[in-house]
Specification:
single chain; about 290 residues; mainly alpha; 7 helices; DUF3829 domain-containing protein
C-alpha cells in the first residue's frame, strides 16, 4: 500500500514538473513574439525621414526657387517638431510595453527607463497628424501599467493580467502609430514627389538650358525619386510590422487563458515569423 502511495506521489510530481515545463516552453513563444515586436518597433528609429525634415525640405526648396539665400534658413517648423515628439512618445510607450512583456514572460524584473514616462502625449493637431483624447488616455494608461511592471506588481503567472489590462490601449496606440507612419509621414513624401516632378518638368521645358543640362536634370530627378520610393517602401514595411504586432497582441489577449496550449504556441509563432521576415525586408532596403 505504501509503495502504491509512494508511486502516486512520484507520478504527481512528474506530472506537475511536466506541466511547469510545458508552461515555460509556451511562455517562451510569447517571449519570442514580444522580443520580435520590440525589435520591429525599434526600426522606427531607422526610418530616414521625419516631419521636421519635411518642413525644412519644403522651406529650403521654396527659398532656392525664390533665389532667397540666407546665412540660416528661416523655417518655422514648430508644429512639425511637435508631430515628431508625439510620434516618439507613442513609440516609447509601445516599445516599453513590449520590453516589459518580454521580461515578464522570462520571469525577470523589468528595467524600463522611467524617464520616457515623463513625456506626456498632448491632444491636438500637429502639422499633418491629429492626436485625439483617446490616444492621450491610452498612452497615460500604458504608462501606469509600465510603472506597475517596474515595481514588481506583475510577476509570476501575471502575464495574462498584464496583457488583459493593456490590450485595448495597445490597440489604440498601434493604430495611431500606423496612421502616423503609413498615412501622414508617407503622405508627406508623396507631396515631395509631386513638388519635384513640377520643378524638374519646368527645367526640361526651359529653352535657356542646353541638352546636356536637361539630361543632367533628368538624372537628378530620377535619383531623388528612387530615394523617396525607398523611404516609402521602408515606411510601408514598418507599418505592416505594426499591423502584425497589433493582430498578434489581439490573439494573445483573446487566448490569454490558453497560453500553455500547443495550438496557441503555433498561432503566436506565426506572428513572430511574419515580423522576422518584415525586419529582413526593412533591412534590405537600407543597403
Amino acid at each position: 500500500m505504501k509503495r502504491i502511495r509512494s508511486g502516486n506521489r512520484y507520478l504527481l510530481l512528474i506530472l506537475g514538473l511536466a506541466l511547469v515545463l510545458n508552461s515555460c516552453v509556451n511562455l517562451r513563444s510569447v517571449n519570442s513574439y514580444s522580443l520580435k515586436s520590440t525589435e520591429s518597433l525599434k526600426k522606427f528609429e531607422e526610418i530616414s525621414y521625419s516631419f521636421a525634415e519635411h518642413c525644412l525640405d519644403r522651406c529650403q526648396f521654396e527659398s532656392v526657387q525664390d533665389f532667397s539665400i540666407k546665412r540660416t534658413a528661416e523655417c518655422d517648423c514648430k508644429l512639425y517638431e511637435d508631430a515628431d515628439k508625439a510620434a516618439t512618445t507613442i513609440y516609447k510607450r509601445l516599445r516599453g510595453y513590449f520590453e516589459a512583456l518580454s521580461a515578464l514572460t522570462n520571469n525577470e524584473l523589468t528595467d524600463y527607463s522611467l524617464d520616457a514616462l515623463k513625456e506626456p502625449l498632448t491632444a491636438g493637431g500637429f502639422g499633418s497628424i491629429e492626436i485625439e483624447a483617446a490616444d492621450v488616455n491610452a498612452a497615460s494608461h500604458i504608462a501606469t501599467i509600465l510603472l506597475r511592471a517596474t515595481t514588481d506588481l506583475y510577476r509570476k503567472n501575471k502575464t495574462k493580467t498584464y496583457v488583459a489590462e493593456a490590450n485595448a490601449d495597445i490597440q489604440i496606440l498601434l493604430k495611431k502609430f500606423n496612421e502616423i507612419t503609413r498615412s501622414n509621414l508617407s503622405g508627406l513624401l508623396d507631396f515631395k514627389k509631386e513638388r519635384l516632378f513640377s520643378y524638374y518638368r519646368e527645367l526640361l521645358v526651359d529653352t535657356s538650358l542646353s541638352t546636356y543640362e536637361k539630361a543632367q536634370a533628368g538624372r537628378e530627378y530620377y535619383q531623388e525619386l528612387s530615394a523617396i520610393d525607398t523611404q516609402q517602401r521602408q515606411i510601408e514595411a514598418f507599418a505592416r510590422s505594426v499591423d502584425r504586432i497589433a493582430k498578434g497582441h489581439q490573439e494573445l489577449y483573446e487566448n490569454r487563458n490558453k497560453m500553455t496550449a500547443k495550438e496557441f504556441k503555433e498561432l503566436i509563432r506565426g506572428y513572430t515569423g511574419d515580423l522576422r521576415n518584415i525586419i529582413s525586408e526593412f533591412n534590405a532596403l537600407k543597403r
